[in-house]
Amino acid sequence: GSPAPDTANLPQHIREDLAQRDAALREPGVVAASLNQTADLGGGLRVRPLEVIEDSRCPQNARCVWAGRLRLRVNVEGVGDREITAYETAVETPRGNFQLVAVSPGPWTDLPQGAVPYRFGFRKS
């Protein structure tokens, strides 16, 4: 895999949140992938995150009227490109259904842009 980002100089609350999100990405049944990496969910179901279309998630250290969302363009092997939204209903494919169940990093106003690369956790359902 890619080297872990240098998080030593990030604020404590962001480091704690990243640790929680890393744990979510390692939960049983969750397969993690970065952009342009393939998550093999078994049974021929392979999902590759291509592009974050929208990340309007409300920063955890801000107050928002709307919680926001994260929309991701993925390639589903043998199916083609699909647009999915984190934590929403499962995506149906001929090789099984899957969901985007974990996203790292979290939204923070004081996290420098690009300091921590996105990682996505997928679960076959």
Structure commentary:
- With 125 residues, this protein is mainly beta.
- Helix content is 11%, strand content 38%.
- The chain has one helix and eight strands.
- The protein has one helix at 12-25, and strands spanning 30-34, 39-40, 46-55, 70-76, 80-85, 91-93, 96-104, 119-124.
- A four-stranded antiparallel beta sheet has the order 1-8-7-6. A four-stranded antiparallel beta sheet has the order 2-3-4-5, with no helix packed on it.
- A hairpin with a 5-residue loop joins strand 2 and strand 3 (46-55).
- The longest helix is centred in the N-terminal third of the chain and has 14 residues, at 12-25.
Give a nutshell description of this structure:
The chain has one helix at residues 12-25; strands at residues 30-34, 39-40, 46-55, 70-76, 80-85, 91-93, 96-104, 119-124. It is mostly beta strands and 125 residues long.
